[in-house]
Each structure stands twice: as structure tokens, then as C-alpha cells.
Amino acid sequence: MSRTVPIVRIDVFTARPFAGNPAAAVLDADGLSDPEMQQIAGEMGVAGTAFVSAARKADADFGLRMFTPKREVGYSGHTTVAAVHGLLEARRLRGDRVIFETQGGLLPVEVERRDGGALIWLEPPRPALAPFAGPLHDTLEALGLSPSRLGVWASPALTPDMDVLLPVDELETLRQLAPDMNRLARLGGLHQLRGFCAVAPKGLEPASATHSRFFVPHYGIPEDIVTGSVHSAIGVWLFEAGRLQPARGLAAFTAEQGDFLGRPGRLAVEVRVKTGADGRDRAVGVRVGGRAVTVLNGSLLLP
Asked: Which residues touch 145 (CB under 8 Å, ≥6 apart)?
């Protein structure tokens, strides 16, 4: 006997349909098996599918699991935003804050009502970055990035999610990247890296501080359209490189991604800064915000 599973498709990090990063959300995932969730994610074919269920812990509101078309991941920013947006529209949130129980631990999300809509803020633990000690030359070759076009405004870095952050010299260099996806996938698997993120130090719009491209071919995502999870690390990276000037303990900027794929996405990033006893400013927290819009409501039939 077949079963019907309600599902929504949501465009994330945008306020209009057919832009930003598409995600799917199943808001009643209790009773679905792991293979069924993976099959649903594969069928949807988007970078992230969220599965919301009852929480097992008393200090969480919901359980949340996230899948790419090929595997489960512990954290995906745009997938989390999609889950919150779906819950908002279904009127299942009691207030402006929700705590998810995820594979990576408790994940708090805040909802800010603004301009007749909602800005959904992700605040994962502050990422600690490390210098990228991996195969830089091979990575640049696989990305199609000449060493002479590697930016000097920041150093290549590795995030806690095992994403490589690479500065490029200018926006046009970023536009012209033509990665060898098979080679990138091999590098990612061999060195246990999640993704490869190339970042330009300005955006297409004057008010934007960065534009990024993010490649994850070994996760079934040749190029991710807009990547929420990596932007918390980008915020800290920019601050540590001296690219952000905090005011009253906060450094905020707009980040761009997705334009070169025809789906413009915009993210709000805020880095909280504290001055230590030595007089130096340090990043102590970061959050990433975005809007979302539902483009499809429907149901899947499971055998």
C-alpha cells in the first residue's frame, strides 16, 4: 500500500520565486526510514531536503535531518532556512525562536519580522578556521584558477565543516572559473573535504562585500547555488583578514552567491566582536540571515 508524504519546495536566500537556492521540506517526517528519506532527497534533486520530526530532547522544539541527493549532512544553512519557512507558513512556530535537534547538536534559529516578511537567522557555533594545509596547487588546477589570480587579501583557510576558502583577485576571475568536477570530486574524497569555496572581495551590487561560488561535486552538487553554512565561516575569515570594520561590537555585510547560475541569492551576515584584555578585537559569534519563498506545495507517493 502506498503512502502520501506532503512536501514543499522553497527558494531560499531570496524574496522572489525562481531565484536563490531551492530546497525541499517534509514537515511530518516521523515514521520515515533513513533509506526513504534518502530516496525522497534524490527524487527532489535539490541541494538540500529537510525532514522535520518530533524532538527527542526536552530542550529542542523539533528534530531536523538534512539530506543532499547522495548523502545525509549534519548541517546545511539553506535547508534549515527552508524548514523554518515551511513551519512558519504551516503556523507551527509558537514564537520567533526555534531550536532544532540535529546530528551536529542543538541548532537555534531566530525569526525577525521585517517589511511584511521574515528574515530567518542561523546562528551555529562560531567557526574556528585553520590554514589550508592541503593540496593547494592541485586544488587551484582543478578549479581552473591560475595561481596568479589567487587573491592576496586573505589566506586560504579550512573551516570546521572541511570547506576550503580560497580568495580570488576579482569578480571577473570568479565568473570565469570552469572547474574539472571529476578532479574536484576526487580531491574532496581523498582529503575528506566537503566543498571548495572561491570568494571575490566585492559583489555585483555596490552594497555587497563578497561574491562566492561553492563546488561540492562528490556530494551530488556540482555547484551549490547559495550556501548558508559556509557564510558563517566567511564572516569570521573576512574579519580576521581585516576586511570588516566593526561598529559597537558588530560587523555586518551583505554576501552574494548564485548570480552566475542565473539564480541570485543574498545573505545577511553579522559578526559579533569583543575587545579582549590585550585590546585586540576578536570575533566571538556570527549569524547568517536570509529570506525564503514557497514555490510548490504537493505530496509524494511512497511505495
From this structure: 166, 168, 173, 177, 198
Residue 129: DSSP 8-state: P
Nearest by Cα to 25 from 46, 55, 2: 46
Strands (DSSP E) along the chain, which ranges? Answer: 3-12, 21-26, 48-54, 62-67, 72-73, 97-102, 105-114, 117-122, 130-131, 157-158, 163-167, 195-200, 208-216, 221-224, 250-257, 265-275, 281-290, 292-302
**CA–CA dist 43, 247 (Å, integer):** 46
Same domain, 171 and 260: yes
Same domain, 81 and 34: yes
Containing domain of residue 70, as a range? 3-123+291-302
Give the total number of structural domains in the chain.
2
Cβ within 8 Å of residue 139, ≥6 positions away: 164, 166, 184, 187, 196
pLDDT (tens digit per residue) in 265-300: 999 999 999 998 898 999 999 999 999 999 999 999
Is 35 found in the same domain as 16? yes
CA distance 8 to 295: 8
Percent of the chain with pLDDT over 70: 100
213-247 per-position pLDDT tens digit: 999 999 889 999 999 999 999 999 999 999 999 99
Query: Mutual orientation of helices 228-240 and 77-89 as an angle, nearest 10°?
Result: 130
pTM for the model: 0.93
Query: Coil, helix or strand for 82?
Result: helix
Least Cα distance to 50 among 16, 97, 96, 90 occurs for 90
Q: Are residues 158 and 45 in the same domain?
A: no
Q: Are residues 179 and 110 in the same domain?
A: no
Same domain, residue pair 154 and 194 = yes
